[in-house]
Known about the structure:
This protein is mainly β and 147 residues long. 15% of the residues lie in helices and 45% in strands. It is built from 1 helix and 8 strands; from the N terminus they run H-E-E-E-E-E-E-E-E.
Amino acid sequence: MKKTLFTAMMLLVSFASFAQLAADKIIGVWESVDSDPRLKFEFYKSGGKYFGKLLYASNMFESDGKTPKRDDKNPDKDLRSRSRYGITNITNLSYEDSEYTGGNLYNPAEGRNYRVKAKLTSENELDFRGYIGFSLLGKTMKFKRVR
Length: 147
């Protein structure tokens, strides 16, 4: 009886570990394949959720091409003077049933927030959907893993 219980517990732990490994596959640097503006994010994990830090957007620089624009359309007046570079603007994605859901995307070019879901279509390809209200009312962008 003890062996059976021990074996069952080990199987549960190994299944939970496998699910966690699958969830962590989003971690890394990703760049857009088909979107305008061109985007690059670094996904990371914190507190059991997944977040994305903006590393590059083709529309994030002033006319000199070097100086990052400020987050001047942010609804929070205290954040309007911060740089768009490096902001964590994808927040609180959860992994469930092979999909990342429940997250938010802040678009600094508009100062708006969108709901987000994402799904790995392969080891190095990610479909990322931003939407308002229902997922049908949104846009899907394709990303490829950079590293």
